Structures are given as structure tokens and as C-alpha cells.
Amino acid sequence: MSKEISRRDLLIKGGALAATGALVTAGGLSLTGLAEAAKKEDGGYPYPYKKMNPQKSAEIAYNNWYKNFCAYGAASGIIIPQRNLVGGQWNSFPIMSVKFGEGGVQGWGTLCGTLLGASVAISLAAGHEGEPMINDLMDWYGSTMQPVFEPAKPRAQFKNKTMSNSPLCHISVGKWMQAENKGLKSPERKDRCARLAASVAYQSAVMLNAWADGKYKPAYSGKQSDCGITSQNNCTECHGDNIPNTI
Known about the structure:
By secondary structure, the protein is mainly alpha-helical. It has two domains: 1-41; 54-237, no CATH class. It has seven helices and no strands. The protein has helices at 2-41, 54-85, 89-92, 113-126, 131-143, 169-180, 187-212. The longest helix is centred in the N-terminal third of the chain and has 40 residues, at 2-41. The N and C termini lie far apart (104 Å).
């Protein structure tokens, strides 16, 4: 009797262990596949990335500004080289989806479209690891005499470079227009913005290449919260007497 009970217990326990093992195995497979499933749902985000030539990125961005303006130009300077180097998901991403960023988002003069387009491309390549790069790009944009890029065959000539101290389109463009004494529809202003798209694409490619080599180190450590809310700290670039008076 005791032997029968022991045997029965053994069978019951063995079955329970087998069932538990099956559940653990199934659960393990689910957990293992969770990240892959999530990645598949996000279209394989982030995309595989290969180092590229920043100069070529800039040239693509410069020429494509004249097709679909700033956000498209800057994004294409990263995405098109990756299409050639990697293919895959890069081929299916619609660059036209960021065209709305032109003129600071449909002409509202907010975030410069070059920053919007480049930030999307950086995010596609590096995912969450791209966030410090985007932060650095925003700071670099506003603290550098722009545009940096000099095209081999410029479509217009102008003299001035300006420092915006802001990532906003209307401040960045307005300061340059005031310095150059040119209107919004002038060939010079258009070429300035095309060169700016190229400059931003070039800088983005430099950072992404350093990241791919494991050598990227965030440069900007400032916190934009002095006003008690996530924001810029240079409010007087938009409010007060510093607003550029354009022609």
C-alpha cells in the first residue's frame, strides 16, 4: 500500500514537475521572444547602422533641400547613405514623412526643420542611445556660427554666418536675414538654409560614426529647467529687444 501510494505520488509529482517545466520553458520562450516581438512591432527599430562619409551626407542634404526643404534634406543626408550601405529597413522608411518640418513645422518657425529631420534619422540609427546625440546637436546648432558647410558649387553667394543661440527656425533664419539684409524668398536665404541642412547632416554623421566606434561622449551637460519646466534658458532670444528685425 505504501509502495503504491509512493508510486502514485511520484507519478503525480513527476507530472506536476513536467507541467511546470513546460510552463517555464514556454514562459522562457515568451520572455526571450518579447524583445524580438517588440522590435518587429516597431519595424526593427533601431535600424542597423554603418559608418558613412560625413561630406557625402552633407552634399546629399544640400541638394535635397532644393527638392523638399530643410527637414527632408537633413534626414536624407543620413538615411540615403544608410540605404546604400545597409539597405533593409532603411529602404522602406519614407523620408517624405518628415517634410512637414519645413519652416519650423509647416512655416510656424518653431524647431528648425534641419534639427527635426536629423533627430529622426539619429533615432532610427541609435534608438535610445541617440538621445544624448540629439541633445548635443541642439546645443551645437545654436552655439556655432552657421552655416558651416561650404558647397563645391553653391547656388547662391552670401557673406554672413550667424549664431542663433536658439534651435528655433524664426530666430535662426531671422538673425541671418538681418545680418545679410536679404528677404525670406531671396536665393541667398534659400542657399543659406540648404547649407544649414548640410551642416546638420554632417555633424550628425560625425556623431553617429563616433557612436558606432564606441567613442562617442556626450558634450552638452546643461539642464534646461531653470524656469521650472523643460525649456530653453535663453528666453530673451525670442522675448524682448533681441527679436531680429528682418526686411
